[in-house]
Protein 1
Amino acid sequence: MYPRSAILLAIVALAAGCSPPDEADSVAGVSTEQIAIRGATVLTGTELNPKSATTVLVAEGTIRAIGPDADLEIPAGARVIDASGLTLAPGFIDAHVHIGFYDPAEVVAGGVTTVRDLGWPPDEIFPLVERSREPAFDGPRIVAAGPMITAPGGYPLNAAWAPPGTGLAVASSEEARSAVTAVADRGASIVKIALNPPVGPTLSRGLVREIVSAAHERDLEVTGHISGLEQLNKAIEAGVDELAHMLMSTESIPDETVEAMVQAEMTVVPTLSVRTGHDRDVAVDNLRRFIAAGGQVVYGTDLGNEGPQPGIDATEVDAMAAAGMTGLDIVRAATVDAARLLGLTDTGTVAEGMRADLVGLRGDATMDVEALSNIAFVIAGGRVVP
């Protein structure tokens, strides 16, 4: 797992000495270039309503206008992109990555314009979060959890892939609350816990409750790396808000537990592309039944692990489709619903006034899931990605 050498330290180290941004990039994190995207079928608004032969105008990194090709006048000097025959969707949001294992430029070029890192040393990841807001940053916008909170000796403290500082061990209520305060004060967007008995001790039910309570007091949700039905039940009872993966063991989740997850309004980030063979089949079936019961799913790949590729991952998309999701369902899970989960109010939809995070897909992405990973162009913060 996580076989690639980390490059994040080098990226962070370059931040202080990076070249000054282009004069056109005067707004933090976005481009001031004017762009007109013409001829696409645009998935508009929070309902992702498809509108054919539509033009989208972008300026100052923001979507300024959307309308029929025949009606919108292109500003003088604007860069024109012919998107005839393409689906224009919001840029994808990957809700589970370990960005330190990849060049961020690869990730954004593949159609993912925002990522959430779910496990990395705080002194490395939080500076990169800030760096990702700068105009010169060639990568997706990043939000992060920082280190995972775990039991002494628990996952990922002894994991070969994890740099020192990726895990934060707690053994008492006071330590649990202090750990939540520490990651919240650094700028965590969510608190992550690990309950993975095959590789070490796990947090008690009482400590999980303490972590959830402390996180909610800071208006943060809690996501869990969870293996096994016993640990899943512990997480549900303690009020954990999200699964960072579909259940990591190969157990079939009983229907009554699936219903309990739905009743608890627990969100699942599937990361199916890290599974293979029978393991993936079980995870897909668990996801299928969770969706059928009304569960909320948000796109995430566990990028950095073996399997997922940077950008919109075809294996993840195919596995989500095997669980019963349509192309439009998958787009929604990776855009509208992901933005809502991450608390991002300026991205995830193609609408006037929103940040210009867009991806042009070859084909009808609402019907053909293969179109979701067939990238024609990417715009991130109003900047056309090379």
Protein 2
Amino acid sequence: MITREGKGDSGVLPRGQMHLKRLVIALILVPLLFLYVMYLPPEYFLFLLTFFSTLGMAEFYAMSRINAALKYAAIACGAAIMFVFFMAKGFFVHVLVLSVLVLAGLRLVIQRNPGAAVADVSAAAFGLLYIPGLLVFQLDLVKAGPQWIVLLYASVWAADSMAFYVGTHLGRRKLYPEISPNKTVEGAAGSVVGGILGAALIKAVIHQELSFGHMIITGAVIGIATVVGDLVESMFKRDAGIKDSGSIVPGHGGVLDKMDGVTFAGPAFYFLCLALGLI
């Protein structure tokens, strides 16, 4: 993700091949996402987001090494949380609490050994907050207008891409070597610039009503949140002793590796929009 030289933290792919794969995938996925979000009802975005949330949760629980039954129950709870938030938001907290109770009760039943029980239930419950719990804010954004989702993802993609290229070619000072040795201060600054450029592009194309000041603020906040989200996922991967959350996305690692920035950028952007009175 941000400020990586080579393939993520693993350095498996040569730099030129890594750049080419990133470009090809972006050229395919970005227009498809634009068309999907802009021309289909919000319900379709719910299905898409739930699908990727499910994949991300599967990767996170694989990192956490929890029991398979607990893993699949948590993934089912995560999908329920997404649908309840979209269709009956008033029951969101109820379903979240009920999900934690179900997971704790299930751990009690499936494994008599109390050892690591707190770790198992905590990992399962945290996965609900970390992935569907953070992604649900995008459902409110898409209801406010598909242009907000396009702005969010365009800014995150631009922030991530700018951080990658700036960090690769200009990065000198380490940002947080204990968590991610290849990320640099220059790459983080590139993420902020990229977020602003992404917001500027969407403002010019489909979001002319967004003021220049709001464009700068939203782009910068998304750029900063993308860096934080990336570092948080890197922290979890380093704790698990792995370099990528998976390998489902060619040249990019796992689904969670691609979602890490937007998991934090989505809520940050949503609350900023509320504070600025944009939605």
Protein 3
Amino acid sequence: MKAHIKNVRISPKKLNLVAKMIRGKNASEAMDILRFTNKKAADLLYKALKSAVANAENNEGFSRDQLTLDSLMITKGIVMKRINPVSRGRAHRILKRSSHVNVTLKSI
């Protein structure tokens, strides 16, 4: 009853802000919270949670009401390094961060 999303183009700090809201909650309650949260991170976490719930329903035979979030782990993914040219021939670095999302559910 797991779901993984790798190399999501959003920083882990932004994802963790939304992930803190749903950690330890019931799966259906967490999906409701994510559906009405107005952030890009909420959409990405909703997809991961929906996939984990679908895996539990189809593979294990659990219903959505029996499931709760066991762990929701956000880890750092690859960092794309770009430069922004500035005056006097110098360059400032731009770090385009990405994240990995791991969702694990357990039955009550």
